[in-house]
Amino acid sequence: MSLVHIDLTVIWAGIIGFAIVAYVVLDGFDLGIGILFPFIAVGDDRDTAMNSIAPVWDGNETWLVLGGGGLLAAFPLAYAIILPALYVPIMAMLLGLVLRGVAFEFRWRDPAHRPAWDVAFTLGSTLAAFMQGAALGGLLQGVKVTGRGYGGGAWDWLSGFSLLTGASLVLGYALLGACWLNWKTAGALQRQAAGYARRFGILLLLAIGGVSLATLGLDANYASRWLSMPDILFTALVPVATLIVTALFYRSLARNRDVQPFFWALALFGLCIVGLGISIWPDVVPMRVTIWQAAAPQRSQIFMLVGAAIMVPIILVYTGWAYWVFRGKVDSAGYH
Predict the structure, then answer these.
(1) Splitting the chain (336 residues) into consecutive groups of 10 residues, what average pLDDT does each group show?
(2) Is the bond preceding 230 in cis, omega lying within 30 degrees of 0?
(3) pTM
């Protein structure tokens, strides 16, 4: 195996990883708005919450398409194993995203049935978030591989662990949604959002601890990567950093900051992703298939890399521009 091939494979793993991180960061808070929707007062407050994400919510899902398409193109073997294994949660997630998108549009166009669309918006957002977490849990707990394909059943992903990871991601997205509203709104709604951020921060920290401990018990390889010497000298920094970031998050809320809580919440997600990387690297199907075993031929990777080198910067530029244009505070009438 040539050095060039190894480098290309790692680059593509980085591109797909970046797309997944970008999706979690950008779509997480607007899914969180939907999760929090039942706790936001009907009327101007709900309209304000919707207006805060209206200019950006659909563009955020671009990264989900890039992650899924990149997995198919760059790691076809992993795609052939993971998709059948997680078909049920992935399809449920997509249905949730469709329901959420339809509800988002029709609550404005069909005001006579707005309460029903609000319920659909919450259900779609919560279903999508939960199934994303459940799919991750199903992958982490192990996938049965037979030959070069999936060898298990349609419901093997469903377990106590996958339910825990699904619920944990719902809590995490709710935290991001609360922090986004704290940033983008003012007055009573902002104070309410800050209160929710405090509560969900505690719940998320407990969920992170629970998922982390449960992960160590899934497989001896996970425990070895975290607890063996000398690896533990590095891995111990992750929980320490998590506690430090949590303290900074609550300090920023206590000082009534607008922007800082959101980015400290993102830092918590970032540390969770680092922890995930420690647990599974260099596998793409944990304990079964490495990124090199799953990789497409070198020529295919080079061909696709040219397209990615052109399109990813374009996506980043127009996404950044959209957030810059709509960078102010928002109310029920829109951005100021």
Answers:
(1) 60 88 86 93 87 80 81 87 92 93 86 89 95 93 85 90 95 95 90 94 94 88 84 88 95 92 93 90 86 86 87 87 83 63
(2) yes
(3) 0.91
